[in-house]
Design brief:
Strand order of the largest sheet: 2-11-15-13-12-16
Helix content: 25-40%
Structural class: alpha+beta
Radius of gyration: 41 Å
Largest sheet: 6 strands, antiparallel, barrel
Distance between the termini: 53 Å
Low-confidence stretches: 23-29
CATH superfamily of the largest domain: Efflux pump adaptor protein, beta barrel domain
Mean pLDDT: 87
Strand content: 35-45%
Number of helices: 3
Length: 355
């Protein structure tokens, strides 16, 4: 045999052998390694992990009820304002003129009413004098008729004053629609307006958010929301500060869904149990909701579970081989354990996957 062919064959055999050995080693090294676990009873506390965002406790998008040219913007983005502070004003020259006219009419109606009431008091005093001096019946009757006429004038004037007051209040209410006031203590988060621009009615130009009061909001699927209820406790970890956990509780679960794609989600609101410094709207948050707690229930580590065809199984020993057995699970706990509802008993041996 030619030596070159011989050596070439040897090299080829060695290469093929190396490939086969490498393949076998890789497959053997990637095979899962299991260890035996004894099923036990214990305590389990449900946990649901969610992702949400920090939102201000209060927020309001503010606009003029009655549009017009903006004449005043009193604050800038980032400013803190107290409830009732004027934030913006629109032109109300015509309305203010109407308001002043309404005030003048009201004052005139008040003065006229005072005159008629004085006259009525005088005529009633005159009737008392006639009664005391023994005046004739006809004189008394005439005085009573005069009093009745004066009473009618007073009543009519009261109606005029009431109408004048209504006009004044209406004019004042119209002016109020050209002013934006802060509905609560907060920080101006956005301002989309400039002095001189014309603002449309009921179109927001300012956003006000609470400065120190924040909450967490998370959207939960229709499957998960069934496991939640108000007053459930939770822990919140903020993005950028994963070392700290803040205690919170669920304060509200929206009854109506918020569709996202083909899935219905429900907004869940959580409130911090104590003030948290440095919060900002929009911060990401990891939320662990603490659900129901069970004592003396059968539990196993989740590494022992696997799924096939929508069903859950574990491996159990049977005649020195691993045999899969179907089980039913309950809640997943904070202590990294899973409740077993059926399929296993305390003391059973199962196989858990080493990680």
């Amino acid at each position: 045999m030619n030596k070159n062919i011989f050596y070439t064959s040897i090299v080829a055999i060695l290469i093929i052998g190396g490939i086969v050995a490498s393949f076998l080693y890789k497959n053997l090294s990637e095979r899962p390694i299991y260890s035996t676990i004894q099923v036990q009873r214990g305590q389990i506390e449900e946990s649901l992990s969610l992702r949400g965002k920090i939102k201000p406790e209060l927020d309001a998008n503010l606009g003029f009820e009655k549009g017009g040219k903006i004449t005043n913007l009193t604050h800038q983005v980032g400013d803190f304002v107290s409830a009732g502070t004027i934030l913006a004003e629109a032109n109300a020259t015509d309305l203010q003129a109407q308001y002043r006219q309404a005030i003048d009419l009201k004052k005139s109606a008040e003065a006229d009413l005072e005159q008629y009431e004085q006259l009525l008091r005088k005529e009633r005093a005159e009737l008392d004098s006639l009664e005391n001096t023994g005046a004739s019946f006809s004189d008394k009757r005439a005085q009573k008729a005069q009093i009745k006429a004066s009473e009618a004038q007073v009543d009519s004037q009261k109606e005029k004053l009431s109408a004048a007051l209504a006009n004044q209040e209406s004019a004042q209410a119209q002016i109020a629609k050209t002013i934006i006031n802060a509905p609560f203590d907060g920080t101006i988060a956005a301002q989309d307006a400039k002095i001189g621009e014309v603002a449309q009615s009921n179109i927001p130009i300012l956003t006000l958010i609470s400065r120190d009061a924040f909450k967490a909001e998370v959207y939960v699927s229709e499957i998960e929301v069934k496991n939640l209820k108000t007053e459930d406790l939770a822990q919140i970890t903020l993005d950028g500060d994963p070392q700290k956990n803040y205690n919170a509780k669920i304060s509200a679960i929206d009854p109506a869904e918020s569709p996202e794609g083909n899935v219905s989600n429900y907004k869940v609101t959580l409130n911090f149990l104590a003030p948290v410094a440095g919060l900002r709207s929009g911060l990401g948050a990891s939320i662990s909701v603490v659900g129901q707690k069970k004592e003396n229930t059968i539990i196993i580590p989740p590494s022992a579970l696997f799924e096939e065809g929508g069903k859950k199984f574990v491996y159990v020993p049977e005649r020195n081989i691993m045999v899969k057995k179907e089980i039913q699970t309950g809640i997943y706990g904070l202590n990294n354990m899973v409740e077993i509802v059926s399929g296993l008993e305390a003391g059973d041996t199962i196989f858990g996957l080493n990680k």
